[in-house]
Amino acid sequence: MQPATQHRSLQSGFTLMELLVVLVLVGIVASLATLSIGDGAERQLRTETQRLAGVLRLARDELLITGSAERALGLRRDSYSFLELVILDDATREWQPLVDQQLGPWQLEPGVIELEYEQEGERQPLPQTSGWEPNIRLGNTGEMTPSLITLRVPGKPFERHIQISMEGTIEVLDALPE
């Protein structure tokens, strides 16, 4: 015969101290993640800069492949669009925006990011009208109007630049070369 076994009550769960330690560790990890990601406006600035540089490369490459007619990039302070030259009659030609999911028109979030444009070292005014003007022309052999597009967050020291060379090289810069 076996002696009577004693039943010990087993408690499962965590102590208050263990829970507090875990919560502190989660808080520290979340703080570090927030610091490494940065400001939401700065993140959006990086995203928009990469997007604009990417669609410029896409439009350049598309012209190289297809050999289509000349296109241009039209800039406004709060938006941009690729344009194509449309022949209305024998004497009239007009730049009209491409209606395309990738190539535009693309509206930047108002008050978050603004565009500036420089050509030959001089800042050019950007129109705020309903029509589009060509700022950067793209040729079907890869050449582009040499220029500098600056995207900035108004009221904050965040800005990024897209430098475009005559040969069609597109480079994203965090700071301007001195």
Automatic annotation (TrEMBL):
It comes from the Bacteria. Keywords: Membrane, Methylation, Transmembrane, Transmembrane helix. One of its GO terms (cellular component) is type II protein secretion system complex. This is Type II secretion system protein GspH. It comes from Halopseudomonas laoshanensis. It is found in: Membrane. It is a single-pass membrane protein. Gene3D superfamilies: minor pseudopilin epsh domain. The chain crosses the membrane at residues 20-38. The keyword Membrane applies. One of its GO terms (biological process) is protein secretion by the type II secretion system.
